């Protein structure tokens, strides 16, 4: 289903490749604040989707590796398109989003930076894609 949901018009990165780039890349969270405040990838910058504003990226060089994620990859794909249009050169959409990140056993943190198993599952329809090692929050 995810394959047909996305347009695949922006570069995509797998969870495995993103986890190897974690020390070098800037991670942008394209979910809404209520989702980010449950948990997120450590060090991620919340940029949102409905209220996305390029000024949130002030100070990030246009040649910096940027990995954008959301729950499954749809919203982050749309934000990635805007970043590429604004001249950012090394942007990739995390294929499968934070759900796949967690499904593959990678950690997420709460707002205090502490590891947590809680993930905002967006809604019950999308939450079905969050399968392993997570406590779903709605």
Report on this model:
The chain is α/β, with parallel strands linked by helices and 138 residues long. It has a single domain (2-137), classed as Rhodanese-like domain (Oxidized Rhodanese, domain 1). It is 27% helix and 20% strand. The protein contains six helices and nine strands; from the N terminus they run αβαβαββαβαβββαβ. The strands form three sheets. Strands 1-5-4-2-3 form a five-stranded parallel beta sheet. The chain is globular, with a radius of gyration of 14 Å. The model has no long low-confidence stretch (mean pLDDT 94).
What structural keywords apply?
alpha/beta, 6 helices, two-stranded antiparallel ribbon, globular, five-stranded parallel β-sheet, 9 strands, 138 residues
Q: Which CATH top level class fits?
A: Alpha Beta
Query: Would you tell me which CATH topology applies?
Result: Oxidized Rhodanese, domain 1
Structural class: alpha/beta
CATH superfamily: Rhodanese-like domain
Number of strands: 9
User: Roughly how many Å apart are the termini?
Assistant: 22 Å
Helix and strand run: HEHEHEEHEHEEEHE
Average pLDDT number: 94
Looking at the structure, what is the overall shape?
globular
CATH architecture: 3-Layer(aba) Sandwich
Oligomerization category of the chains in this entry: single chain
Low-confidence stretches: none
Give the biggest beta sheet: 5 strands, parallel
Number of helices: 6
Proportion in β-strands: 15-25%
User: Any idea how many domains?
Assistant: 1
Radius of gyration from the alpha-carbon trace, in angstroms: 14 Å
Q: What is the helical fraction, as a range of percent?
A: 25-40%
């Amino acid at each position: 289903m995810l394959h047909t949901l996305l347009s695949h018009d922006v570069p995509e990165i797998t969870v495995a490749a993103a986890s190897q780039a974690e020390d070098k890349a800037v991670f942008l969270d394209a979910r809404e604040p209520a989702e980010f405040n449950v948990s997120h990838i450590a060090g991620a910058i919340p940029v949102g989707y409905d209220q996305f504003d390029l000024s949130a990226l002030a100070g990030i060089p246009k040649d910096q590796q940027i990995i954008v994620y959301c729950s499954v990859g749809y919203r982050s794909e749309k934000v990635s398109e805007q970043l590429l249009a604004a001249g950012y050169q090394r942007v990739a959409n995390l294929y499968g989003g934070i759900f796949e990140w967690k499904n593959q056993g990678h950690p997420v943190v709460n707002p205090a930076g502490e590891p947590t198993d809680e993930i905002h599952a967006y809604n019950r329809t999308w939450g079905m894609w969050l399968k392993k090692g997570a406590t779903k929050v709605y």
